[in-house]
Design brief:
Number of helices: 6
Oligomer: single chain
Helix content: over 70%
Distance between the termini: 47 Å
Shape: elongated
Largest sheet: none
Radius of gyration: 21 Å
Structural class: mainly alpha
Amino acid sequence: MSPFRRITLLLGIPFLAGLAFLTLTPSRVENAMPNLLDLVLRAAHRLGWESLDFTRLEVAANVLVFIPVGMLAVAVLPRGLAALAFFAGPALSICIEVAQQVALPHRAATISDVLANSAGATIGVMLALLALALFTRRAPQPASPRLETS
């Protein structure tokens, strides 16, 4: 197993636990951490990003939070099935949104969350595949036998 896969798996379990806490608890994040979100927005505005509002911040956060989901999917799946990693993020996002809709009436289940989460997971898959391509050692290719002619 490559170091990338080992590290990703090691960090993946606590990350998924945190993601479950973030998305499947009864209260919304902005209710639990309003000061943090205000700080982020104020800092962005001071840096000149005046167009950033809560909605855009939420979309950006959804994209960023799901990048590790895509990376984890690549790390978990066998090499030959890596293409399936592109479906893991959208599937997980749909499951989360359905759970919010069915069991968490104070949460908002939206298609825009699924789209942002899926975009983040797709970025994660592409980053992971790029990292594997760049940093995985390739086995030396055996020399092809040459035919000798006289």
